[in-house]
Every structure is written in structure tokens, then in C-alpha cells.
Batch of 4 targets.
Target 1
Amino acid sequence: MSHVAIVGGGIAGLSAAYELAKRSVPFQIFEASHRFGGIVETEHHDGFVMECGPDGWITEKPWARELAIELGLADDLIASNDATRITWIYRDGQLHAIPEGMRMMVPTNLNALRYSALFSQEAIEAYEREPSRAHELKQYAADHAGTDESVANFIRRHFGEEVTRTIAAPLLAGVFGGDVGTLSAEAVMPQFVSMEREHGSLINALTARTSANAQPVFTSLRNGLGTLIDSIVVTLPQQSQKLHHTVAAIKHENAHWHVEASGEWRAFDHLILATPAHVTRTLLSSIDTEAAALLDMPASSAVLVALAFTAEQSQNIQIPAGFGFLVPPKTQGSGLLAATFVDQKFPHRVPPGGRLLRAFFGSATAEQMQSETDAYIAAVAHAQLCDLLGTQLPEPSHTVVRRWPQSLPQYTVGHRARMRRLDERIALQPALTLLGNAYRGVGLPDLIRDGRATAASIAT
């Protein structure tokens, strides 16, 4: 009998498995598909490094970097090209640069706003008034302590409707595939909620921070994030890896967890469920109906399309400088939410002279695309990129299409309170832990942190 069962072979489950193996704790990790890594996957084609899921992580969160270094990947770490970091917003038929010094939708340089065509004069004036409203905003936070609100309401209170619609909505849709009208401010941007409680004004809070020790915004790996997955998997005992093993049911009997995988029941001392929320909900429904009900959360699907262009094809491609662009949700004629200029965001992604673009579809458009062919999806991505960039792109030399159904759980208003209640329910079950992007963060560093911390707790 193995000590620990891990159900789900994404980055959270793999991080737990890595830590258990490091501490010589016996385990088995069950993955229904043919490969480990979940949405973290990299393809290589003729010198192009094509990410099928996330392309990096937020540098200021240390846990992914720490793991990469432990795995011997220190020399493979690369930083985003922040010297040319510009993000564009599509508005009124044109791409407009987000002004310099913006942290998400909060400016640190009010002067830069005055030269931006992205905002109207009314929106710029709303930004300029926000620092003088610090006492009012801080008092609001004190009066509503312990309550949550939507991202839209939070941003609207500080900067008005135009800022909410023009920049907050596309930024959050590009990360969560969600609606700022329903996403939780407390769960999605806790740093800004804390700033309001302490300073009132978000602009005052950010400008008071020192930037002397500035880091690159994003970090990745030279040959793609798939390298991280491969490097973890080779550290795991072969007999512990159970690919093509779908877990159909779980139960707790005689002081052990019993897992039914591919028609066979096996017993374990501890159980880690590192599956998507809807899968975890199904497995828990026979164990704790209240816990299962708390996992009945909405999730958005995603579709990613990477389009590679050779050096010869790229000679006449006109792409603006920067990392890419965002499209406000429900923009007429576009289901695209974001595009990345991959070769400009990170080094070592294309052969000399090549270009690599990535298109991201979410929400209802991604749901509709799940059943479409790769050729159809690639054609839609190509057409919409041409339209939004205002140029005719050649047919790509290679495309990669990935569908990720229900991959983006929505942290709706009240999320943290629901997770606290879920933690209380799970604590009533002996030796059971839930991992994944539905609980305490969606980024790779958060999932790695939680996976390793869980395994360390079990080991000790």
C-alpha cells in the first residue's frame, strides 16, 4: 500500500509528487490523460517554441523560480523583454498603448496619462482626483470591512465607469476569462484591496513604493515551460506514475482512503485531489455533499492558437512594439480576448527573423469553439488577428491549437468566504487535501507553493 494518492497530474499534483519523492514518501499519482502537466505544455517546430498554455509566471512570486533552480534549470531561466514592454488595448477600431507606469489599471505616472489617446479627458480627470479622495476611500473600506465586492464596483469607486470598461475589463478577461461584474475584488486583486484599507488611494499607495529593486515582470524557461514538467517527471519513481488512469470514485473506510482507478480499488493513508473543481465536486459528492456544493463554481473555457511565421514570411509583417494587445469583452465582431507577440515578449522563442503570435479566446466564444476543428479555429484566429492588427498576415508556416474546457475557475464575489467554509468541511475528513487553481490562486507559482506545502505537511 502506498502512503499517498495524488489524483490529477497537473502542476499542483506534480509539485506535491516531487516533494513527496524528495522526502522518500511512497505515493501514486493518477492522471487520466496520456501526459502529465495539465495545461502546461510546449511544442517545438523548426526553431519555434510554442506554448500551448501559460507562457511564463509572475516574477515577484518566488515559488516557480525556486523549483526550477532545484531541478537544475537555473541556466534556462529567462526574463521578459521589459525594456520594450508595451501592452495595447483595442478601442474604437484602433490599438492604443496602455500608458507608461500603469500597474494593471492603476497609474504611477499621472503625466503619462495626459498624452494617452486611450482615455477621454473625463477619465483622466477621474484618475487625477483619486489621490485627493484618499480619506473618503479609506473610510469606505473601514465601513465595509469583511465584505466583498465585484472588481467592477471596486474600480468604479476609484476611477469611474470608463476606466472599468476600457482597461479593467480586458485585463481581467485576459487572465481569468471572466467578467469584472462578477469577479471578486478580494480574491482576484487582494493587493489593491489591502492598499485601499491602508492608504485609501491606490495611486498614492503605488507611488509610495520604491522601485529601486525592480524585477522583470515575467519569467519563463528558454525551451518552454514543458521543460519544467519534464524535469519534475524524471524525478518521480516510474512505478508511482499512473497515466491513462481515470479515478472514478473514492471512499473512506477502515482508516484508509480507497481510490477506484481504471476499475481497480487501491488503499492509501492520505488522499490529494488535484483535479479541476468540477471533477473534484463529483468525487466528493459521495463523501460530503456540503463540500461538493461549495465547489459548484462557474468555470470558463479557453482556446489558444499559436501561429508561426518564418523569416521569409515575416518580412512584410507589421506588428507594433510590445508584448501584445487586449480586446474588451463583447467588442463587436471579435471573440478574441488577447494576443501575444511572443517573439517580442520573450527571447529564444523563434528562429532568426521569425515571428510567433498567440491568440486567446475565452468565455462563450471558447465554449463554442470546443467542438470545432483545428483548421477552423486557426482560420478564425488568423482572420481576427488580421482585422484587429489592421494588416494582412500571410498563412502561417505552422499552427498549434489547444482547447482547455472549464480550465479557468471564476473567483466570483464571496469566493474567499466560500473557500474558508470549504476548508472547514475538508478539515473534518481525515488526511484529505484539495489542490488546484480553483482555491487560492491561478498562477503557476501559487499552485507549486500549495502542492509542495501539502506534501511537506504530509511528510512531517
Target 2
Amino acid sequence: MAKPVAPEAEALSPDHAAKLLGISRALFFRMNSAGKLPLPVYLSSRCPRWRRAELLAWLAAGCPDRLTWTKLRKGEH
């Protein structure tokens, strides 16, 4: 009997977000600390998650820094 396939998570842990981006967990945290990634959402005070769709859109936009990304998302130029 085949195992059921779980749907892809929409809220990614740091490990899964780093894997999606093809970088190490350590680099992911350095980039986040430096303001080079989109802001996470917090499921609790110690549980940050990144939206899969937002990370993919951020990649497609050329990986802008957090401030530029926030302005792009709001439609500012």
C-alpha cells in the first residue's frame, strides 16, 4: 500500500526555507539577520515561518533586500 502524499507546506521552517532557496541553514540565518530576506510570520514567539509563495516571488524579483522587497510588495517605487 502506498503512503499518502502530504501537500507541500505553505509556511516553511528555516530549514525548509533554506532548502527551497538552495542555501545552507547558516547562510539563511545570516541573510535574515542582515535584512536580505522577506520577513517571516511568527506562529508563536519562537516559531518563525516563511511563506513559500513569498519566497518564490522574492526569488523571481531578483532577491532584493528586505526594505526594497517590502516597498515592491506595497506597490511603491
Target 3
Amino acid sequence: MKKIILILLPLLILGLSSCGDQFSKGQKGAGIGAAGGAIIGQAIGRNTEATLIGAAVGTMLGYIVGNEMDKFDRQELNQTYEFGKSGQTTTWQNPDSGNNYKVTPQPAYTTAAAPSRPCRKAEILATIDGKTEKTYTTACRNAAGQWELQN
């Protein structure tokens, strides 16, 4: 079963990324997030339950990022990760979509594997089409200085 999942997930990612306009950005993001989350869940937990939990978390985060966060929102999120005070919430409303975001970053940290690459966790409260969703995410700074969401 594990081998089937590990074989099918990359095919799902490839298939969704090449579908053009057949799927929305949110659907593509959800599929890619689910695949990435499942792989990470399996790698960490090494059981079906961890794989399913990883897929569920990845789906939600992938949908939010893929569909709802446009360039403006990603810039605001990057600014929050870069300059936001730990524990203090930064809020904004997208002028085009009307979506609202509240992001509360945590202190930056590094890992032994990448001591020069700072990371931050954050709680994101997104209100999209009147529905509020809460998620927790981690972003790490890349070589270009941009914060990249981690799966």
C-alpha cells in the first residue's frame, strides 16, 4: 500500500500541474498540498494514519495558498514573516477579492541541518467568502531572501 501511495502521488502532482484551465488554482494547490502532506506524513509517522493526517493538512493549506492568496497576499505574508513581531497579529484585506487575513508569527529559529536559513511558524486566520479557516504554517527564508511556505 505504501509503495502504491508513493508511486501515485508524484503522478497526481504532475497531472494536476499540467491540467491548464481544467482545474482552478485552488484545486491544483489542494492536490499538490495533499500529495506533499501525505508524503511528509508517511515519512514522519510511517503509518496510514500519519499519511492521511498529512494529506488533510496539506490539502487545506494547498487550497488556501493556491486559490486564495494572490500576489498581493503573498507579499503581505512575506512582509509579516520578515518584519512581524513575534506574537503580534498582522491583518490585511485583499483589495480585489475582499478576503481578510490575520497572521500571527512566532519567533524565528534555525535548525542544525540549515543553520543559515531562518524559519518561522505562524497561525493564519483567513476569512474567504465569509467563512473563516485557521491553519498553522511554517515558512523558511530562501537564498533570495523570500519566505517560502513549507509543507
Target 4
Amino acid sequence: MRHHVILGAGPAGVIAAETIRRHAPQDRITLVGDEPHPPYSRMAIPYLLVGHIDEDGTHLRKRPGHYDGLRIERVQGRALQVDTQRRTVRLQDGRALAFDRLLIATGSQPVKPPIHGVELPGVHHCWTLADARAILQRAGPGARVLQLGAGFIGCIIMEALKQRGVQLTVVEMGDRMVPRMMGPAAGGMIQRWCERQGVRVLTGTRIEAIEHEAPLRARLSNGEHIAADLVIIAAGVRPAIAFLEGSGIRCLQGVLTDERMQTNVEGIFAAGDCAEAFDRASGRTIVSAIQPNAAEQARVAALNMVGRSAELRGVTQINVLDTLGLISTSFGQWQGVPGGECAQWVDEAHHRVISLAFDGDRLIGSNTVGWTDHVGALRGLVEGQVRLGRWKEALRRDPTQFMAAYLATAQAQAAWCGPGDTRRRGDAPVR
């Protein structure tokens, strides 16, 4: 009987524990989380802020006794050190957990920028249930809220705050909103949309200091001073892997894994937002902090932990964002590659953008704003590494024709390539 220790009680940790139990009924499973609550989804917190759910609604598994019924032992604690020689994990309270197989699924942690006053009461991240409770106390209708960060997570928080009826100012250091997901045209379009909805957005701006307490007073890099009842820090996240320093487990941006989600140390695996896995489409290792990746990585890791062979097929690079009713998407290497070509279509009057990035005759990435019809075809072209042939020039002239390109190339190639035939063709005629 093996002992599987799972560090992290988020979606990846829970899915891994359930998968192990399904395939190894007699093995011991210990799930370690650093919060006192049952495992919950951070992505559900905005719905809690709006009032669509209560705290129980954030829980990943809602059936009473779910973990006890599966004989998954839950331990509250924070990992401080992994000893790969002794095969133990030391927790903050001094306990040591011995393991046969270890899964690192500690996820991400919010970045705390070096701002004077960031520890003052009324300054919060929006990351935990404790953060949500504090925000609910201060973010009533008419409250003055200053938010640092207009990235993917920041936009989700902004949506919830706006629905609570606050007076919202958003400060973003980048030159546009969602700069790590959207190019200039798309990010600028989202900013103009938000401003029309009553949100003040200041790009290219930093909070330099937070002073006083009632109300808070923030000094900005543009010289302004803004009074606020609440300041929210949404300045990005990073993999929560500092405790692995000195362990011998290889880390780059995240915990480096192979196609089995195993690290460089036999019997130690990683999954979810802290894992760095190989992406076949881009040819490099990446950390892709989205839940579908976390779920698949957890499944693959768990199967290998119990001796069943499984491989990760790839890392999905996809983001879909609803910003105050404006839908945007980002697939693949939307920012392009050196020597590649780009095409763009903008409809300012209807708040729509399509941006495409090519490498040779393959579409490698895209941005869309305000365009919801058939966007899955863009994902299919990007992830399928489809050769476009003459359709590339058609898309350069008119990016809105991506669905026609998909039908003429991706589906045709699937029909022409029989079992075991990896040839790809892209010479369908342009219509």
C-alpha cells in the first residue's frame, strides 16, 4: 500500500486525489491545504461577491462527507520543505509527512507589489474566502474602490465590483488592459468599453504609495491622489513553489515536468498552476494557469502515481473573458513570433476586433473582442497546427473569414489523412 501526499487542495489536488482513489482503492491519500475551509474554487469568489452564491457554493464538492467517504485524509498545513532523500514533507507547524508518491499542486499566489502602505487595513487581494469577507464589508453601493491591475483576474474582479454598485477606478501599469492576454488593439477596445460602462481606467500608471486609513489615500505615478474606502491588489500571480528551494526538484517559472507530469525526481509529480509542462504547439514549456489544464494535468499525474501509464497531450493556451458584457478570447501565441506575420480587423463602432498571428502558413495565435460566432474554429486552427496554404493570404486580407478557412483546411485535412497518415495539406481553393 502506497502513501500519496498531495500538496494543495484546489481543483488539481482534489481531482488527483479522486483519481488515485478510483484506481488504487487500498492506497492511503493525504490532501494538504493551508486554509481551514473545505476545498473551494477561487474562480467562484466573484460570484460570491455579487451574491449569486454563498460560501458553500464555492466548495468544489458539495456532498457532505465526500472526502471521508473516499478515505481521503485532509490535513490543514503549509509545506515548508520537501526532503527528496528521506521522502518527507515538513509542514509549518513542525509535522513531517512521509510519502511514497508526492504531488505538488500548490497553485499560484498573488503578487504583493512593493508599495508603501500595502499592509494597511482596507487593502486586500481578492484571492481567498477571507479576502472575500473583507471586501464584502467595504464594497457596498457607492463605495470608492481603487483596484491595482487590469489583467485577466483583475477584469473578473472588476465585473463583480461593478455589479455591487461601487465607484471604481482601475490602475494598470501596462499600456492597455489585459496586456498578457491581448494585443494593443484588443486591449484598447476593452478599455474604451469599460470607460463607457462607468469605470475609470488609468493605463501606464502605478500606485506609488497608500497613505492614511479612513479613508485610504493613494498616490499615483501620474501625480494624482485618490481617496478610497477599499484598495484591491490584483497585480498578477506566480506559482507557489518557494518551499521547494534547495529540494533538488527542478523549477523554472514553475515546477518542470515531463509528459507524465513527473518532475526530475522519481515519484514526485506536479500539476495545475504551479506546474510547467511542455506545449507541443509552441515547442516550449509553459505555465498555463487555467482550470482545464489543471484538471487534465492532475488526471495524468494521478494515473502515473498509481502505476498506470498516461501522457499529457499538450497544454491548452486559451482564455475567454467576459468584461462587463464584452466577450474576448485569446488563443495560442497571439503576440506572434519573430519573422511571423499578423493581420487585424477592427470595427470600432461595434466594439469588435480580430487579430491573427501566423508562422509560415500556420495560424499560431489570435485575439478576438466582441466576436462570438464560431470562435472555436480559431482554436481548432491554432491547436491543430493546420497548414492554411492559399487561405493564409485570404485571412491576411480579411481575418473575418476564419470559419471559411477552417472548413476548407482543417476539416479537409482530417478527411484526407487516414489512420497513421500525418501528412497535412492546405491547398484548398480560396472561395
